[in-house]
Amino acid sequence: MNRNLVQRLGFGLLTTIAFLTVLPIILILGYIIVQGAPAISWEFITGYPYGGMRSGGIWPAIVGTFYLTVGTAIFSVPLGVAAAIFLSEYAADNALTRLIRLAIINLSGIPSVVYGLFGLGLFVFFLNFGTSILSASLTLSIMTLPVIISTSEEALRAVPQAFRTVSISVGATRWQTIRRIVLPEALPGIITGVILGLNRAAGETAPILFTGAAFFLPSLPGSPFDATMALPYHLFVISTQIPEMPIEIQYGTALVLITFVVVMNLLANFVRSRARARRQW
């Protein structure tokens, strides 16, 4: 058989598979947009729910999701990147570090409900933080750490070893080399891991169900020790717990949550693109 024909058949097969993979996603997004767009309005975005949550807006849930995402980033990003730096740049390649890496990979596969129960026992009861933004953020941070550590370590390892060698040869210390050479070069990959972790945290229901989410609050939380509404849990509540809930409000809430995640991705892609443009390899 002609090699060009085989190549065209191969490209055609790959294109078909890619199209069949993306098509369900497009259809789901299109359906959510069609069903949810009629509910989107200024009042829906900035208002408070009333009438048994069958009317009004979702502003407390939007703010709560933002608080939880920021709280998760505050706890998980520094710790995750620091752990990745240690494993990549300082730790010896021995049985202990291989065991640690295996544990990190296994932790990323644990169901989120297990993290929720762990957060309930540790942060809510044992440390007495109560059902609060702090407890939920710490629980989500533990859940996102494996993703951030793994992707950040791979990004750091991808930086050519020659960069480290040249930096140290001109008198820089190991930490100066990491801070001024390795980290800036690995920043696009690190940002990718951070966004993957935070996107998962922003869309989770089970962990915050046990540790920080409230069914309904008449006002915004005033401190990290207050409970909060959140878009994922709010969507779960209005879809399963409230009878005769208007379908457009359910899909409108889902559309806002998807938009929240997409905006996070766009901002991260902008920062990542700027970092890649400055990269020297």
Description:
This protein has 281 residues and is mostly helical. It has one domain (54-278): Orthogonal Bundle (MetI-like fold), CATH 1.10.3720.10. It has 11 helices and 2 strands; from the N terminus they run H-H-E-E-H-H-H-H-H-H-H-H-H. The chain has helices spanning 3-36, 42-46, 59-90, 95-107, 112-126, 133-158, 161-169, 174-203, 206-211, 231-240, 247-278, and strands at residues 49-50, 55-56. The chain has a two-stranded antiparallel sheet. A hairpin with a 4-residue loop joins strand 1 and strand 2 (55-56). The longest helix has 34 residues, at 3-36. It is globular and about 70 Å long. The model has no long low-confidence stretch (mean pLDDT 89).
Mean of all residue-level pLDDT scores: 89
Low-confidence stretches: none
CATH level 3 topology:
MetI-like fold
User: What does the largest sheet look like?
Assistant: 2 strands, antiparallel
Kindly report the oligomeric state of this protein: single chain
Number of strands: 2
CATH superfamily: MetI-like
Gyration radius over CA: 22 Å
The helix fraction, in percent, is: over 70%
CATH architecture: Orthogonal Bundle
Structural class: mainly alpha
Tally of alpha and pi helices: 11
Between the first and last Cα atoms, what is the distance in angstroms? 40 Å
Main β-sheet, spatial strand arrangement: 1-2
How many structural domains?
A: 1
